[in-house]
Amino acid sequence: MTSSGQKQTARNALSFVLSIAPLQARMLVLVVAGLVTMLLTLLASDTLDLLEEQAGAFAWRLNPETTLEERVSIVAIDEKSLAELGSWPWPRETLTTLSDALADAGVQLQLYDIVLPEARPGDEQLAAALESNRGVLSQAFALQAGQAVQTGQITHPLSGIACNSEGAAATGFIANNANFTSVAKGHITPVVDSDGAVRKVPAFICHNGQPYPALALSAFLQATGDTSWATTVVSGEGVFAPAQQLQFDSYPGMTLPLDEAGNIRVSFRSAPETFIAYSAVDVINGEIGPQLLENTWALVGYTAFGLDDIVPTPFSGAAPGVEIQARLLAGMLDGSLPYTPRSATAIQLLLSLVFAGALLLLLSARERFIGPTLLLFTLVLPAISLFLHARLLLGSNLWFGWLAPAIYGVLAASLLMLYEYSRVRMERGRVLSNLSSYLPSNVAQEIAYSLPNSSINARRVNATILSADLRNFSAYGEARLPEEAAALLHFFFVKAAAIIEANQGQVHEFKGDGLLAVWHGQNSEAATHALNAASQMQRAIQEQLPQHPPAGLEPLALGIGIETGSVLIGSIGPANRRTHTLLGETVTVAMGIQEMTAELAYPVLVGENAAKQMDYAGLQSQGSYLLKGLRRPHTLFAPPIQTSSGNTKADIPTLKVHQGGRA
Fold this sequence. Notes:
Number of domains: 3
Structural class: alpha/beta
Largest sheet: 8 strands, mixed
Number of helices: 19
């Protein structure tokens, strides 16, 4: 479709919306906003999901938990350790010494966020130490197609879980060498988002039909001493239950919330400084204070930047990967892992409906300042959605999502603002159009765009006035049906208005069976236009009037008077009932001249001031007359009358009347 066709379609759609009742139109706009929101979330899901994650996690950063984590300790392979013990990988003897030092310090469980794929001297001693000290090693999986590398030997799958449809599927792996087969394992493969951040970790990863647990899960299974590692995945039940739940047979009553893909969401509720890190070399050298590591779970991992185990988090653009494992362990110990409830979509829909209801109430309660208020709502509604998300996340560990209601709120408020603006424009245009049908267009615009008041709003101008009247119409209307009389009057007004406007004049008002027209300016051009309009009206209207009136009635005739001079034009009356009027001697004279057309049997008469502007060209003096209601006589002039043969009627003798209306 071309751009012009698209614009035409948009205009047609807007015209349709504007043509229906406001309530129905507003509801239709809200429905359209919902459909557009759904379309956006489908077409731009990846980008919107990332935005939702980044902004949604801001609540953790804004109000972090600062209590020190004393159950999980990080033993860091940091720059200090590398400087004193040598570059990585360390000899197996060094790692054996580290494991024994941790055991001597009273560590209950040792978790190693490292993989040892190559066989090296000392593997057997290290494996024995890890088994004796309740250690757990890591193994990593490849989840992307084309990564089919298989190094080492993966071990320690879960039991009780089928891999037919649950859990992530691995295409390859990097595991520990066969010397560590007897040591417990857990995977450290995260879900990496497009911005490089780690927000979720698969609870287990399937390879060759076997489910292998995450390192944090392996820690709990290792702590119980249950060698079967039996677990079960069940569907969540209840409105606020997660999509799936992982249950441990060895931990009755303990469940872990999983999403539809079997992932665990990492909690960033605690600030990074709440996790205590000890340098590995200090542990080996016995420089850690007594009882600092006692009864803790020690998590050994890289923190040195040169080892490339750095991931962005809501708190930092560069955090060690071992911190992710520490957060998972802390969240599992507290039972505070965040998750998206099964009812998240319903909650978002309900919130969107609340936003729609609030907008409808706003529009029904307020007519003034709707535009600024709707503009404010485009900011307030997303803020409300984000605030509710933050409250549920901080208070109940529920990640229900905020972006869909926020998008809906912005779209709904914006589209309603467009509709209201268009409706106001349409109604204002309709009012202006209606006013223009009763008043001159410039007067209609002035009235439409100004507030009414009770003061006189008029100005004095020079103008040429034309007064036209259908003589004998009252008697005609008395003898005819009202519909017939109205049709005749309608014809007169329509035809006369068209001729006047074609001659650059304006109809000031229709009054009874007559009208007043105005040409601004006291000059020959205005007077000539008025005379031309009068002549054309006579030719176009007089011949269309009924020529055979009912018995006893005089025939209808059109009389026109023209005069030039100063007039007062403007609005008067109370603020609640104004009238636009045309006042002054010139108006009275023009109306009086029009009445004289019947007395003198001339259809068009011109006053002396108007005749003077035309230099009396072609005008014939009809003498001086004392017009009705006036004290000063006025000289009247008439243009030549065209006879039926096309010849000019002979001059009528000049008559002078000083009182009354007939010689």
